[in-house]
Q: What sequence folds into this?
């Protein structure tokens, strides 16, 4: 077994016992159950969970990730004195933190769906897309959080940077896209907006989920374009590829900085 | 055992280590002493591979540290602050390291048993006191039978009886041939354990030699006074 998998195994055990994992599990179970209580439409429930996933989850994951890294500095430093490669250490820890969070979300969402929704074949792709978007949002923003914390030793600056990134991606970006679409309303903007939207993982995760729902009204401008352009399969492949790249980019940045860092 | 040649390190325009050349012999107990900010910690971290020097070379047991991380198999490190995940149990923290260190099968559990850590094995790290964590860190430093022990303020936060047990263990492994490198602000402890002293000031090595010789040069029976005298001395700028 490689060192990375050994570190991942014990890190998972550590994080599985943390309060956030229990909070995620309870929150998503309760929230999804309540949505079913007030709204029997599966697509409506998916859209509501998605709105939480793309608004608060990135912020929560960024703040948890940076806090986790700063609080684990003693552990990281000690592990670096062992015969372990730096890349294996940071990847093992990242996976060991990310997967329990993903797991608790997926269980928290899936169980109420199994209990309360009338699962039909048509809604399965949308549920799958919702779970995939949750998965990617956690992986991407945890990688970003690690990258920020590795880059910035000062805790306060690290938190500031995390909140700024969340503010830019979750709030300002759509405003920016809307501004472009209004300002250049007389021009064919489909392709440029499509490209611009792929620079934001939150937009990508939202689009990826919503192209599986017949809910273009909920998608915002970029999502509507995505649906027009790609429709289901191609759109899924493009957005999944982009989300994978979005996971790998901050992770690679974190690994690069971690390898060269003084502790 | 450890050969350091031309080691330099700068943090944000401040040169912390200024061309350090040191040789630490196998089987010695060497203490690195000096005031805060003299470069002791950076030197230790450089040996451990935690700090990447801008120039110079370090070899431990014949292996150059830049070439691989495997040279750390020789090292047992006792940090000043513990480093285990808060929600893991004591036995899991130890198992993690044992899983990583497959090169050692015959663990040295003498200190683990002497500290009575067995009774804490099912407790989570976050529920341990500072003293118990220090005992655990110390027991782990010896567990994989290292040939080089690096101890950063080894007795800080230990009670007197645990401190005696640890010092006895240091002497015992040293008698068996293990090289010990330690830092401490407690000069009577250094006097008790070390046979060699490296005195650092502003990133330079200002003295390296035996403890007895240092006391003789400074004409005092107290190592504490001898070190205090050197700090007051005026030195010419060291080689950069």
A:
């Amino acid at each position: 077994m490689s060192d990375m998998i050994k570190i991942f195994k014990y890190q998972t055990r550590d994080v599985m016992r943390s309060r956030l994992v229990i909070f995620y599990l309870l929150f998503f179970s309760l929230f999804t159950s309540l949505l079913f209580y007030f709204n029997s439409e599966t697509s409506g429930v998916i859209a509501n969970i998605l709105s939480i996933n793309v608004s608060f989850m990135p912020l929560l994951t960024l703040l948890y990730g940076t806090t986790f890294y700063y609080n684990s500095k003693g552990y990281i430093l000690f592990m670096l004195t062992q015969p372990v490669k730096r890349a294996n250490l940071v990847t093992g820890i990242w996976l060991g933190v990310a997967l329990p969070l993903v797991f608790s979300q997926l269980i928290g969402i899936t169980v109420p769906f199994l209990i309360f929704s009338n699962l039909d074949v048509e809604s399965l792709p949308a549920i799958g897309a919702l779970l995939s978007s949750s998965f990617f949002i956690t992986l991407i923003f945890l990688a970003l959080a690690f990258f920020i914390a590795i880059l910035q030793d000062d805790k306060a600056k690290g938190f500031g940077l995390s909140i700024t990134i969340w503010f830019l991606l979750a709030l300002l970006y759509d405003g920016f896209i809307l501004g472009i679409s209004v300002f250049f309303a007389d021009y064919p903007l489909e392709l440029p907006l499509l490209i611009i939207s792929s620079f934001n993982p939150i937009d990508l995760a939202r689009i990826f989920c919503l192209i599986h729902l017949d809910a273009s009204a909920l998608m915002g401008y970029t999502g509507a374009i995505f649906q027009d352009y790609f429709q289901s399969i191609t759109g899924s492949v493009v957005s999944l590829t982009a989300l994978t790249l979005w996971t790998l980019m901050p992770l690679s940045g974190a690994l690069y900085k971690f390898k060269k860092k003084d502790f | 055992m450890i050969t350091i040649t031309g080691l330099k390190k700068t943090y944000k325009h401040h040169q912390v280590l200024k061309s350090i050349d040191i040789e630490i012999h196998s089987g010695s107990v060497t203490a690195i002493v000096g005031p805060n900010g003299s470069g002791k910690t950076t030197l230790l971290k450089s040996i451990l591979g935690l700090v990447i020097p801008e120039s110079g070379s370090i070899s431990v047991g014949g292996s150059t540290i830049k070439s691989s991380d495997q040279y750390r198999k020789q090292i047992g490190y006792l940090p000043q602050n513990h480093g285990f995940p808060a929600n893991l149990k004591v036995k899991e923290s130890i198992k993690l390291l044992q899983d990583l260190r497959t090169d050692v099968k015959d663990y040295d559990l003498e200190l683990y048993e002497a500290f009575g850590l067995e009774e804490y094995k099912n407790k989570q790290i976050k529920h341990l006191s500072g003293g118990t964590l220090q005992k655990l860190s110390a027991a782990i430093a010896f567990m994989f039978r290292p040939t080089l022990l690096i101890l950063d303020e080894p007795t800080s936060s230990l009670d007197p009886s645990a401190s005696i047990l640890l010092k006895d263990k240091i002497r015992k492994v040293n008698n068996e041939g293990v090289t010990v490198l330690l830092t401490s602000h407690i000069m009577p402890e250094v006097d008790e354990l070390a046979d060699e002293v490296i005195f650092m000031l502003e990133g330079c090595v200002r003295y390296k030699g035996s403890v007895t010789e240092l006391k003789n040069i400074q004409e005092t029976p107290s190592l504490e006074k001898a070190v205090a005298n050197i700090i007051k001395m005026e030195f010419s700028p060291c080689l950069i």
Notes: The longest strand of chain B covers residues 14-24. Chain B has a mean pLDDT of 91. The two ends of chain B are 25 Å apart (CA to CA). Chain B is about 35% helix and 25% strand.
